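ESCALATION

Customer reports they have been waiting on this structure for their group meeting. Please prioritize. Original submission:
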Amino acid sequence: MECRDAAVSYLSWTLIVGGAVYLWHQTRRHTEYGRYVSAHDRCCPARLAWFVQEVPAFLLPLMQLLTGDRDIDPGRTGLRTGRTLLFCTFMLHYFHRSLIYAFLTRGRPVPLIIVLCSAIFCSLNGFLQGHHLLHCSRFEDTWLTDARLAAGARSPRDTGFLLFVVGMSINIHSDHILRNLRKPGEIVYRIPRGGMFEFVSGANFFGEIVEWWGYALAVWSLPSFAFAFFTMCSIGPRAYQHHRDYQQRFKDYPRSRKALIPFLL
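Update from on-call: job pushed to the front of the queue and completed.
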């Protein structure tokens, strides 16, 4: 399949503009989810909601991989090393989010409008990232094959890949801490402790933001940066929302703990 440059550019700028608009919206009105959901909202069970809204970002790239041409160069077989690795990083996140995290979560029901909007976003972004990596991106065959990772990150791509791994690890560990704050069936709130929660209230959000900015550095393209920017605009304000809620809810909440960025914000 040929690279659809116009579609890639249009969808990328849609994410950038949409992220900026959503950030502005969240400064005026909080997103209603989790503990902030109104009793009047029509909701979907948390596990089903996370599966439905996240799985398109896993299935659409997978379908593109299985059904599309792979741009095989003369004398080479399969996708190039760099492209394959970065495609797998994107797929790994959404495999975990839709098929593991979704069935472990103990969260509250999710409003249907959020499920719908998230599913649309994951569908568009899944197509965008998958199409760009499979049909538009170009990587040198020597990338990640010259032991640079073993010797230390020496390029933006190497640094980005390491940031992705670190960010995803923080995100998964933080989700584990949150999930174990309460027993099944409990509806209570406790102060999260351990890991990056010792530094920020939104450790899970911090990890995911680091993860996708690392992905953006590694891919080094407009679609990947647009995705990272949208992610930051979307979930960054939620960390501040949680931070204020914790401070109001708990008198003994650690004063040294920041909202999103350790020691800064």
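Sent to customer with the following note: The longest strand covers residues 43-44.
Escalation resolved.
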